[in-house]
Specification:
about 80 residues; alpha+beta; 5 strands; elongated
């Protein structure tokens, strides 16, 4: 799993998306790296063990925009019924 500062992650058994604020390099083995998330949590190594899903920053904002457009379409359809 390749992660970058600014990516968004959804942790195991969580529904909230959090942004990676810092990646802490701990030696030459990437499995030793940790990361600080937007809520202040420092994810322990190996981070892959705790992550269910990753989105780039652009993918995350596109997904949010899609959700907003879908929600707007539902509201407009409901309003048209009245």
């Amino acid at each position: 799993m390749i992660l970058f500062k600014g990516d968004f992650v959804r942790m195991t058994n969580e529904s909230q998306w959090l942004q990676i604020k810092e990646i802490h390099i701990n030696g030459f083995n990437p499995e030793n790296n940790t990361m600080t998330l937007s809520d202040g949590y420092v994810c322990p190594a190996p981070v892959e063990k705790y992550i269910d899903e990753v989105r780039s920053e652009n993918e995350h904002y596109e997904a949010i925009a899609d959700e907003v457009r879908a929600s707007d379409a539902v509201h407009h359809a409901e309003a048209a019924q009245y």
